[in-house]
Amino acid sequence: MANSRSGDSMLDRFVRILDAFDRDNSSLSVATLARRAEIPLATTYRLVEDLCGHGLLARDRQGQIRHGLRLWELANRGAVTQDLRTAALPFMEDINQLLRQHTQLSVLHQDEVLIIERLSRPGAAVNQANVAGRMPVHRTSMGMTLLAFSRPEEIAGFLERHGEIMRSTHPHLRAEMAEIRRRGYASMDGYIDEDTTGAAVPVTNDAGYQVAALSVVVPRSTASLQPTIMALRTAARGVSRTLGYRRES
Amino acid sequence: MANSRSGDSMLDRFVRILDAFDRDNSSLSVATLARRAEIPLATTYRLVEDLCGHGLLARDRQGQIRHGLRLWELANRGAVTQDLRTAALPFMEDINQLLRQHTQLSVLHQDEVLIIERLSRPGAAVNQANVAGRMPVHRTSMGMTLLAFSRPEEIAGFLERHGEIMRSTHPHLRAEMAEIRRRGYASMDGYIDEDTTGAAVPVTNDAGYQVAALSVVVPRSTASLQPTIMALRTAARGVSRTLGYRRES
DNA sequence: CGGGATTTCTCATTCATTGAGAAGGTTGCT
DNA sequence: AGCAACCTTCTCAATGAATGAGAAATCCCG
Question: Which residues lie across from B225 on neighbouring strands?
Answer without folding.
Answer: none
